[in-house]
Design a protein that fits this description.
Elements lengths: L1 E4 L3 H10 L4 E5 L4 E4 L13 E12 L9 E3 L3 E9 L14 E3 L3 E10 L2 E2 L5 E3 L4 E5 L2 E3 L2 E2 L6 E3 L2 E5 L2 E3 L2 E2 L6 E3 L2 E5 L2 E3 L2 E4 L3 E3 L4 E5 L2 E3 L2 E4 L4 E3 L5 E5 L2 E3 L6 E3 L8
Parallel strand pairs: 1-2, 2-4, 3-4, 4-6, 5-7, 6-8, 7-10, 8-11, 8-12, 9-13, 10-14, 11-15, 12-16, 13-17, 14-18, 15-19, 16-20, 18-22, 19-23, 20-24, 21-25, 22-26, 23-27, 24-28, 26-29
Amino acid sequence: MVANVPCAGAALVNAINTAAPGATLFLTHGCTYVLNNSTGPLPSINALLTIHGQNSTIRRDPTAAPFRLFTVNNNFNLDRVKLMGGDATTSPGGFGGAVAVNSGTTNLDRILVIKNTGTFSGGIGGIGGTIVNVSNSTIQFNSVTRNGGGAANDGRMTFTNSVINNNRAGERGGGIANDGILTVIRSVINDNSADVGGGVANFGPGTVTISRSVINNNTANNPPGGIDNEGAPGSVTLTASVVRGNVPTNCSPTPVPGCIN
């Protein structure tokens, strides 16, 4: 099944509701799909679905009741779209203001995740057992009261050729909070803020691998500003990467090889 989705929030809700397993939806080029109290949130993704955004925007009306944009319970592919204004504070788990992944593999390519919020993971959240691949994307100006301003991961999450910046966490991990397996490749994590671990917070048993990337200019009220590595049995590995200019320090409390404070 392949379908074109007219430029209306209600049309997008209906298209997802009626999509057959394995369907592909093409959004209207340049359209802004507004979700409000009349449309309600988008239906959960319960079967394989691909959405080609075609440089469109999906946003929650700021006057609407709080709800996240996407709840994913199966395999999901999404590209070329802006996700804006999702609010997961009253959604189950309070995580993933823009995208909450509960099951399966989610591939996000060329997306802008901006100004979403939640209790955990203002932008993108993945629970244990899930796989989330983010490529060629920007995650910015998202916020949470707890951990993971831009994203939070309990499963497997990979960022490639992406930018995570200007996100805010009330507790740890302004850019990303990790309790699973996190991989960052050719990406930039900068100008994020938190109480602890402005850039990345890694909680054991989480493992973080950062390759050919830059973590800089992140800030925290308490050390560190860059990478908060809570230690064994978790670990942080840097390969051909730079951690610098984070305030008040770059890495702590468990040392990160290659990170100099």
